[in-house]
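Friendly challenge for the regulars: who can give me the C-alpha coordinates for this chain first? No prize, just bragging rights.
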Amino acid sequence: MRVGKVKLNSRVVLAPMVGVNCAAFRLLCKEYGAGLVSTPMLVVNQVVNCPEKTMKRVCFLQEEKPISAQLAGSDPLLVAEATRIIDSFADIININLGCPDKNILSLKAGAYLLKHPERIKKVISPVTSNTNKPVTVKIRIGWDEKSINTLRIVKVLEDLGVSAVIIHARTAEQGYAGRAKWDEIRRAKQKTSMLICGNGDVFTPADAKKMIEETGCDFVMIGRGAIGNPFIFEQTNTLLRTGKAPPHPSDKDRKECFMRFLKYYEEYECTPSFAQLRQHAVWFTKKMRGAKRLRQRLIRARCVKEIIELYNNVL
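First reply, four minutes later:
Bragging rights claimed.
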Protein backbone atom coordinates (compact mmCIF):
# COMPACT_ATOMS: atom_id res chain seq x y z
CA MET A 1 0.00 0.00 0.00
CA ARG A 2 1.15 3.53 -0.73
CA VAL A 3 0.26 6.89 0.76
CA GLY A 4 1.21 9.18 -2.06
CA LYS A 5 4.64 7.94 -3.09
CA VAL A 6 5.39 6.46 0.35
CA LYS A 7 5.19 2.68 0.48
CA LEU A 8 3.83 1.06 3.64
CA ASN A 9 4.75 -2.58 4.27
CA SER A 10 1.78 -3.14 6.56
CA ARG A 11 -1.84 -2.02 6.92
CA VAL A 12 -1.27 -1.39 10.62
CA VAL A 13 0.31 1.89 11.77
CA LEU A 14 1.29 3.58 15.03
CA ALA A 15 -0.75 6.55 16.23
CA PRO A 16 0.90 9.83 17.25
CA MET A 17 0.89 9.88 21.08
CA VAL A 18 2.29 12.63 23.28
CA GLY A 19 4.43 11.23 26.10
CA VAL A 20 4.66 7.83 24.44
CA ASN A 21 6.25 8.05 20.99
CA CYS A 22 9.89 8.55 21.84
CA ALA A 23 12.45 7.42 19.26
CA ALA A 24 13.12 4.09 21.01
CA PHE A 25 9.45 3.16 21.12
CA ARG A 26 8.87 4.16 17.50
CA LEU A 27 11.83 2.07 16.36
CA LEU A 28 10.62 -0.93 18.35
CA CYS A 29 7.15 -0.66 16.80
CA LYS A 30 8.74 -0.42 13.37
CA GLU A 31 10.77 -3.58 14.01
CA TYR A 32 7.64 -5.41 15.18
CA GLY A 33 5.87 -4.61 11.91
CA ALA A 34 4.23 -1.19 12.08
CA GLY A 35 3.85 0.01 8.50
CA LEU A 36 4.27 3.63 9.60
CA VAL A 37 5.33 5.28 12.84
CA SER A 38 4.63 8.83 13.94
CA THR A 39 6.09 11.58 16.04
CA PRO A 40 4.07 12.83 18.97
CA MET A 41 1.88 15.82 18.13
CA LEU A 42 4.07 18.88 17.50
CA VAL A 43 2.55 22.32 18.07
CA VAL A 44 3.56 24.61 15.20
CA ASN A 45 4.36 27.50 17.56
CA GLN A 46 7.01 25.38 19.29
CA VAL A 47 8.42 24.04 16.00
CA VAL A 48 8.85 27.56 14.64
CA ASN A 49 10.08 29.25 17.82
CA CYS A 50 12.42 26.45 18.93
CA PRO A 51 13.21 24.36 15.84
CA GLU A 52 16.52 22.89 17.03
CA LYS A 53 15.11 21.98 20.44
CA THR A 54 12.03 20.41 18.84
CA MET A 55 14.01 18.32 16.35
CA LYS A 56 16.33 17.17 19.12
CA ARG A 57 13.38 16.18 21.29
CA VAL A 58 11.75 14.20 18.49
CA CYS A 59 15.06 12.57 17.44
CA PHE A 60 14.27 11.31 13.95
CA LEU A 61 16.02 8.03 13.04
CA GLN A 62 16.86 6.68 9.61
CA GLU A 63 16.06 3.16 10.85
CA GLU A 64 12.43 3.99 11.65
CA LYS A 65 11.45 5.27 8.21
CA PRO A 66 8.88 5.83 6.91
CA ILE A 67 7.79 8.27 9.59
CA SER A 68 4.90 10.70 9.76
CA ALA A 69 5.25 14.00 11.62
CA GLN A 70 2.06 15.36 13.14
CA LEU A 71 1.53 19.11 13.38
CA ALA A 72 -1.17 21.04 15.24
CA GLY A 73 -1.90 24.71 14.76
CA SER A 74 -4.20 27.26 13.17
CA ASP A 75 -2.08 30.26 12.17
CA PRO A 76 -1.41 29.85 8.42
CA LEU A 77 2.01 31.52 8.58
CA LEU A 78 3.17 29.33 11.48
CA VAL A 79 1.74 26.22 9.84
CA ALA A 80 3.61 27.03 6.63
CA GLU A 81 6.91 27.66 8.41
CA ALA A 82 6.57 24.54 10.58
CA THR A 83 5.92 22.51 7.43
CA ARG A 84 9.10 23.83 5.82
CA ILE A 85 11.11 23.01 8.95
CA ILE A 86 9.79 19.48 9.33
CA ASP A 87 9.76 18.66 5.61
CA SER A 88 13.31 17.32 5.37
CA PHE A 89 12.82 15.01 8.36
CA ALA A 90 9.42 13.43 7.70
CA ASP A 91 8.16 11.16 4.92
CA ILE A 92 4.53 12.14 5.53
CA ILE A 93 3.12 15.26 7.17
CA ASN A 94 -0.04 14.81 9.22
CA ILE A 95 -2.28 17.59 10.47
CA ASN A 96 -4.21 17.17 13.70
CA LEU A 97 -7.86 18.21 13.47
CA GLY A 98 -9.05 16.01 16.31
CA CYS A 99 -7.19 16.77 19.54
CA PRO A 100 -9.66 17.82 22.29
CA ASP A 101 -6.96 19.01 24.74
CA LYS A 102 -7.87 22.42 26.16
CA ASN A 103 -4.41 23.84 25.43
CA ILE A 104 -4.75 22.93 21.75
CA LEU A 105 -8.33 24.22 21.64
CA SER A 106 -7.14 27.55 23.07
CA LEU A 107 -4.97 27.90 19.94
CA LYS A 108 -8.09 27.33 17.81
CA ALA A 109 -6.43 24.17 16.56
CA GLY A 110 -7.12 20.44 16.75
CA ALA A 111 -10.79 19.55 17.28
CA TYR A 112 -11.71 23.25 17.41
CA LEU A 113 -11.64 23.22 13.62
CA LEU A 114 -14.31 20.51 13.47
CA LYS A 115 -16.72 23.20 14.67
CA HIS A 116 -15.46 25.56 11.97
CA PRO A 117 -14.97 23.59 8.73
CA GLU A 118 -14.75 26.84 6.78
CA ARG A 119 -11.37 27.48 8.47
CA ILE A 120 -9.82 24.14 7.54
CA LYS A 121 -8.55 25.32 4.15
CA LYS A 122 -6.48 28.02 5.88
CA VAL A 123 -4.69 25.29 7.84
CA ILE A 124 -4.28 22.63 5.15
CA SER A 125 -3.33 24.81 2.17
CA PRO A 126 -0.14 26.18 3.83
CA VAL A 127 0.95 22.56 4.28
CA THR A 128 0.24 21.25 0.79
CA SER A 129 1.84 24.35 -0.79
CA ASN A 130 5.07 23.96 1.21
CA THR A 131 5.82 20.27 0.77
CA ASN A 132 5.91 17.62 -1.92
CA LYS A 133 5.41 14.94 0.72
CA PRO A 134 2.02 13.26 1.16
CA VAL A 135 -0.26 15.18 3.52
CA THR A 136 -2.67 13.30 5.76
CA VAL A 137 -5.17 14.57 8.32
CA LYS A 138 -6.37 13.02 11.57
CA ILE A 139 -9.91 13.92 12.57
CA ARG A 140 -12.69 12.93 14.91
CA ILE A 141 -16.24 12.37 13.72
CA GLY A 142 -17.45 15.74 15.04
CA TRP A 143 -17.42 18.00 18.05
CA ASP A 144 -20.28 16.26 19.86
CA GLU A 145 -23.16 13.88 19.21
CA LYS A 146 -25.32 16.70 17.86
CA SER A 147 -22.74 17.89 15.36
CA ILE A 148 -21.28 14.75 13.78
CA ASN A 149 -19.93 15.95 10.43
CA THR A 150 -17.51 13.26 9.29
CA LEU A 151 -18.62 13.26 5.66
CA ARG A 152 -18.51 17.05 5.37
CA ILE A 153 -14.98 17.21 6.78
CA VAL A 154 -13.78 14.34 4.57
CA LYS A 155 -15.21 16.10 1.47
CA VAL A 156 -13.41 19.34 2.40
CA LEU A 157 -10.14 17.45 2.80
CA GLU A 158 -10.58 15.54 -0.45
CA ASP A 159 -11.10 18.83 -2.31
CA LEU A 160 -7.87 20.12 -0.77
CA GLY A 161 -5.85 17.22 -2.19
CA VAL A 162 -5.15 15.36 1.03
CA SER A 163 -3.71 11.85 0.49
CA ALA A 164 -5.42 10.09 3.40
CA VAL A 165 -7.73 10.78 6.34
CA ILE A 166 -7.38 9.06 9.68
CA ILE A 167 -10.73 8.90 11.46
CA HIS A 168 -10.83 8.45 15.22
CA ALA A 169 -14.44 7.35 15.41
CA ARG A 170 -15.34 9.32 18.53
CA THR A 171 -16.47 12.90 18.97
CA ALA A 172 -14.12 15.41 20.53
CA GLU A 173 -16.44 15.72 23.50
CA GLN A 174 -16.21 11.97 24.15
CA GLY A 175 -12.46 12.04 24.70
CA TYR A 176 -11.76 8.32 25.06
CA ALA A 177 -15.07 7.47 26.75
CA GLY A 178 -17.80 5.30 25.27
CA ARG A 179 -17.49 3.18 22.16
CA ALA A 180 -15.98 4.34 18.89
CA LYS A 181 -18.60 4.59 16.13
CA TRP A 182 -16.92 2.51 13.43
CA ASP A 183 -19.94 3.01 11.17
CA GLU A 184 -18.73 6.57 10.55
CA ILE A 185 -15.50 5.14 9.14
CA ARG A 186 -17.52 2.86 6.85
CA ARG A 187 -19.70 5.73 5.62
CA ALA A 188 -16.66 7.87 4.88
CA LYS A 189 -14.94 5.08 2.95
CA GLN A 190 -18.03 4.59 0.81
CA LYS A 191 -18.16 8.28 -0.10
CA THR A 192 -14.54 9.04 -0.98
CA SER A 193 -11.75 7.81 -3.22
CA MET A 194 -9.14 8.87 -0.64
CA LEU A 195 -7.37 6.39 1.58
CA ILE A 196 -9.20 6.04 4.89
CA CYS A 197 -7.48 4.88 8.06
CA GLY A 198 -9.63 3.66 10.93
CA ASN A 199 -8.80 4.49 14.54
CA GLY A 200 -10.48 3.89 17.88
CA ASP A 201 -10.97 0.84 20.12
CA VAL A 202 -8.32 -1.32 18.46
CA PHE A 203 -6.71 -3.18 21.34
CA THR A 204 -6.16 -6.63 19.84
CA PRO A 205 -5.30 -8.13 16.44
CA ALA A 206 -8.90 -9.34 16.23
CA ASP A 207 -10.13 -5.76 16.69
CA ALA A 208 -7.98 -4.59 13.76
CA LYS A 209 -9.23 -7.39 11.51
CA LYS A 210 -12.82 -6.69 12.51
CA MET A 211 -12.44 -2.95 11.80
CA ILE A 212 -11.13 -3.64 8.29
CA GLU A 213 -13.92 -6.14 7.59
CA GLU A 214 -16.71 -3.95 8.96
CA THR A 215 -15.62 -0.58 7.58
CA GLY A 216 -13.59 -1.36 4.48
CA CYS A 217 -10.89 1.02 5.70
CA ASP A 218 -7.56 0.83 3.90
CA PHE A 219 -5.45 0.63 7.04
CA VAL A 220 -5.74 0.75 10.82
CA MET A 221 -4.06 3.06 13.32
CA ILE A 222 -3.34 1.70 16.79
CA GLY A 223 -2.73 3.99 19.75
CA ARG A 224 -3.41 2.90 23.32
CA GLY A 225 -3.41 -0.76 22.29
CA ALA A 226 0.27 -0.45 21.36
CA ILE A 227 1.48 1.19 24.57
CA GLY A 228 3.88 -1.26 26.20
CA ASN A 229 2.76 -3.73 23.56
CA PRO A 230 4.60 -3.37 20.22
CA PHE A 231 3.84 -7.08 19.70
CA ILE A 232 0.39 -6.03 18.48
CA PHE A 233 1.79 -5.04 15.09
CA GLU A 234 3.46 -8.38 14.44
CA GLN A 235 0.42 -10.25 15.74
CA THR A 236 -1.99 -8.25 13.60
CA ASN A 237 0.11 -8.67 10.47
CA THR A 238 0.14 -12.43 11.08
CA LEU A 239 -3.63 -12.55 11.58
CA LEU A 240 -4.33 -10.50 8.44
CA ARG A 241 -1.91 -12.60 6.40
CA THR A 242 -2.86 -16.08 7.59
CA GLY A 243 -6.27 -15.72 9.20
CA LYS A 244 -4.92 -17.55 12.24
CA ALA A 245 -4.74 -16.11 15.74
CA PRO A 246 -1.09 -15.52 16.67
CA PRO A 247 0.33 -16.76 19.99
CA HIS A 248 0.43 -14.40 22.95
CA PRO A 249 3.89 -13.15 24.00
CA SER A 250 5.34 -14.92 27.02
CA ASP A 251 6.71 -13.11 30.07
CA LYS A 252 10.18 -13.83 28.66
CA ASP A 253 9.19 -12.20 25.36
CA ARG A 254 7.92 -9.12 27.17
CA LYS A 255 11.02 -8.86 29.32
CA GLU A 256 13.31 -9.17 26.29
CA CYS A 257 11.25 -6.60 24.43
CA PHE A 258 11.59 -4.09 27.25
CA MET A 259 15.34 -4.70 27.46
CA ARG A 260 15.55 -3.96 23.75
CA PHE A 261 13.59 -0.77 24.33
CA LEU A 262 16.00 0.19 27.11
CA LYS A 263 18.99 -0.39 24.82
CA TYR A 264 17.45 1.80 22.11
CA TYR A 265 16.49 4.47 24.63
CA GLU A 266 20.04 4.74 25.94
CA GLU A 267 21.49 4.61 22.42
CA TYR A 268 19.21 6.97 20.52
CA GLU A 269 17.29 9.29 22.84
CA CYS A 270 18.59 12.85 22.43
CA THR A 271 16.78 14.24 25.48
CA PRO A 272 16.53 11.26 27.88
CA SER A 273 14.24 11.45 30.87
CA PHE A 274 14.30 8.89 33.65
CA ALA A 275 10.62 9.59 34.36
CA GLN A 276 9.74 8.74 30.76
CA LEU A 277 11.90 5.62 30.80
CA ARG A 278 10.32 4.44 34.06
CA GLN A 279 6.84 5.04 32.66
CA HIS A 280 7.60 2.83 29.68
CA ALA A 281 9.00 0.21 32.07
CA VAL A 282 5.63 0.23 33.85
CA TRP A 283 3.70 -0.03 30.58
CA PHE A 284 5.73 -3.03 29.40
CA THR A 285 4.50 -5.08 32.37
CA LYS A 286 1.11 -5.34 30.67
CA LYS A 287 -0.23 -8.91 30.93
CA MET A 288 2.83 -10.23 32.74
CA ARG A 289 2.42 -12.52 35.74
CA GLY A 290 2.60 -10.51 38.94
CA ALA A 291 2.30 -7.29 36.90
CA LYS A 292 0.56 -5.34 39.68
CA ARG A 293 3.33 -5.98 42.22
CA LEU A 294 6.04 -5.33 39.63
CA ARG A 295 4.43 -2.02 38.66
CA GLN A 296 4.28 -0.93 42.28
CA ARG A 297 8.00 -1.55 42.64
CA LEU A 298 8.88 0.07 39.32
CA ILE A 299 7.04 3.24 40.27
CA ARG A 300 9.37 3.55 43.28
CA ALA A 301 12.54 2.87 41.27
CA ARG A 302 15.07 5.70 41.36
CA CYS A 303 17.60 4.59 38.74
CA VAL A 304 17.95 2.43 35.63
CA LYS A 305 19.86 -0.22 37.59
CA GLU A 306 16.86 -0.74 39.87
CA ILE A 307 14.55 -1.14 36.88
CA ILE A 308 16.84 -3.74 35.31
CA GLU A 309 17.08 -5.68 38.59
CA LEU A 310 13.30 -5.70 38.96
CA TYR A 311 12.85 -7.02 35.42
CA ASN A 312 15.59 -9.63 35.90
CA ASN A 313 13.71 -10.94 38.92
CA VAL A 314 10.65 -11.61 36.76
CA LEU A 315 12.14 -14.84 35.40
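Strands lie at 2-3, 6-7, 12-14, 37-43, 67-72, 92-97, 135-140, 164-168, 195-199, 219-222. Residues 2-242 form a domain with the TIM Barrel fold (CATH 3.20.20.70). Your move, everyone else.
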